[in-house]
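Colleagues,

For the teaching module next term, I've prepared a clean inverse folding example: a structure given as tokens, and then the sequence designed for it. I'd like students to try predicting residues themselves before seeing the answer, so please don't circulate the second half yet.
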């Protein structure tokens, strides 16, 4: 969770929130509160916090291809270069490319320059 204006923004808490809402015994045990970690603003913006979440989940062996592909797409939209995405998420260049391919080549490679097409006469 990160401070956002007068309140806080939950960066990665969907599953925790679902458990707290739908598991009465857990909600009772936690007295209606959910455990969170406060991320200081110096830790960067939303993209950096999401990247940290991915690194944590990958270290635990929990990651989903579609979610990773969506994240790579979002980071590319934010202007992150492939090298930075790979470094921040603990991937190699090939994995970044494969994840880009899953979420759509046209959008993600729209700014790239390609060689001229050729035809057979």
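(Answer key — instructors only)
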């Amino acid at each position: 969770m990160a401070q956002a204006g007068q309140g806080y923004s939950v960066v990665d808490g969907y599953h925790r929130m679902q458990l707290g809402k739908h598991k009465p015994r857990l909600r009772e045990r936690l007295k209606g509160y959910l455990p969170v970690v406060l991320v200081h603003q110096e830790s960067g913006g939303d993209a950096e916090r999401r990247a940290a979440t991915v690194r944590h989940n990958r270290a635990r062996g929990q990651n989903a291809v579609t979610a990773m592909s969506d994240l790579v797409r979002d980071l590319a939209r934010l202007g992150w270069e492939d090298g930075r995405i790979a470094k921040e998420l603990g991937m190699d260049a090939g994995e970044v490319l494969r994840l880009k391919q899953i979420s759509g080549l046209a959008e993600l490679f729209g700014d790239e320059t390609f060689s001229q097409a050729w035809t057979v006469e």
